[in-house]
Amino acid sequence: MSRIEADVVVVGAGATGLAIALECRARGFDVVLIDEAAGMSASTAAAGMTAPVMETLTDPPMEGQTQDLARAGLAWPNFAKRFGLSHAERGGLWLAPPGAEARAQDVAAFFNAQGLPVRRISPGEARDLAPWMEPPTSGPIYFAPREGSIAPMQAVREMSAAFGHLGGVFLTGRVEAKGADLYFGAERLAARALVLAGGFGARGLEACAPELAHLTPIRGQIAHFGDTPDIPADAPFVRGPGAYVAPQSGGGVRVGATMERGEVSLVPDPLVIGRLVAAACAYAPCLRGASHASYAAIRAATPDDRPLIGPSRREGVFLATGVRRNGWLLAPLAAGLIADYLANRAPGEAARAVDPRRFS
Fold this sequence. Notes:
By secondary structure, this protein is an alpha/beta fold. It has two domains: 3-44 and 153-215 and 304-359, FAD/NAD(P)-binding domain (3-Layer(bba) Sandwich), CATH 3.50.50; 88-147 and 216-301, D-Amino Acid Oxidase, subunit A, domain 2 (D-Amino Acid Oxidase, Chain A, domain 2, 2-Layer Sandwich). 29% of the residues lie in helices and 24% in strands. It contains nine helices and 21 strands. The strands form four sheets. Strands 5, 6, 7, 14, 15, 16, 17, 18 and 19 form a nine-stranded mixed beta sheet that branches. It has a six-stranded mixed beta sheet with strand order 9-3-2-13-21-20, with helices on one face. The chain has a four-stranded mixed beta sheet with strand order 1-12-11-10, with no helix packed on it. It is globular and about 65 Å long. The two termini are 33 Å apart. The mean pLDDT is 93.
């Protein structure tokens, strides 16, 4: 029987899988990375924001995960430097709704203590940071200068190239479960450690890792404006009522994004995209009438909205999935946790809440 043998086989080459493959290879493991359609994952149909403050402020399920989000945000600059990734801390603006002041102050106090500053600013200061924007006249505005951004498609190319430069092996094709074993074509995957990082698509591999049965889909729809001369590529991103506007380092902006639990269609809904664009145009009027493309992608979530990062009940199998819309933000954190497990190092406090075996 033909086999693919390595210290580590990573299945899934989105943000999480690529980060894990890079980290493990950098630590000296022999790594094979496999993806069915390289460069075509939920990670590429995203805005690429690495924004722990904004995720906490705008996504209620994240309020209980602030420590992990902060760790991930703080890890990004060094991770990008080590692997030559075009990550930049451009900052993020939040156009908060009226009545959000007390909660925002609590969030700001936490992140300021972590070394990720955030402060309330005036409408005039907001216009200085984003001259293309017309902020609402009601509600506070907050600025987090260390919020980061990475262009998804460019980042996938850079991470893939860095992995190859380090001597990693990248295979393109489908992985299937046959009984409790996984196969790449006719070859059985015989790694010392098998890491499943394939997002919601990993649901077909439950026979190999029963914890995958807890994944549920969340569809995200997003619009991409390719021609936005009034919005510089290095501008801060803005999260406003109903939509965000995220400038892309390669040009244009992305406007999004929905969180549609249980939806699995990859066909964008024009009505939903229209609502997103209208919400963005309310404070970014320079986008009115501009042409755009639309995308839909399926993310993976869990019953408690925390990811699955760590060992499966099945020996030798590890999971790194269920990251909801935070694949780019959490990628360095997931990579460090998995690499620590494989090196028999204590993964630290961050590991307990995301251990896949918590649903056993």
